[in-house]
What we know:
The protein is an alpha+beta fold. It is built from 5 helices and 4 strands, in the order H-E-E-E-E-H-H-H-H. A 4-stranded antiparallel β-sheet has the order 1-2-3-4. A hairpin with a 2-residue loop joins strand 1 and strand 2.
Amino acid sequence: MxxxxxxxAAIAAALGGCGQALFDDGIKTAVRGRLKDPDSAxxxxxxxxxxxxxxxxxxxxxYGGYGGSSWAVLERNGDxxxxxxxxxxxxxxxxxxxxxxxxxxxxxxxxxEAVLAAFKKKQLIDASITDESMLPHGPCRTLIGSLRSYANxxxxxxxxxxxxxxxxxxxxxxxxxxSMKCS
Length: 183
């Protein structure tokens, strides 16, 4: 009986590391896809919080030399990872917590409501629509999606310059409402 317990414990310990290896490989694969010389990547610490992760890495740049350590920030998307930021100076669990549970959620909701209100005012969409997912596929849904993405990027921007860039993209797209036909 004791032998069976030890055997089960050994199998559990061996398999316990497999999940972590697959997790690490998925993150590394996503980051490699964004590097100039993916085969040169040297990996460091991985930090995870909910569906977000950071990995410290160092890889060769376009000149063939190592550029120094950076952090990549990733978000889990089903079975794969999407790189959100590739070249951050630092990353910690509090940064990931902010991404996972954004303080800006009310602001993002308000932007979407304002965009939908503008489309309703121009009578481009039905007044009963309260969410982007309720829109039929077509040019209005595409434009609203772009506006929402640009506004969210502006809200989440790390600095004033980045925020201004996203705001100008939002403003340029918003002007398209005047000549828009949704059908």
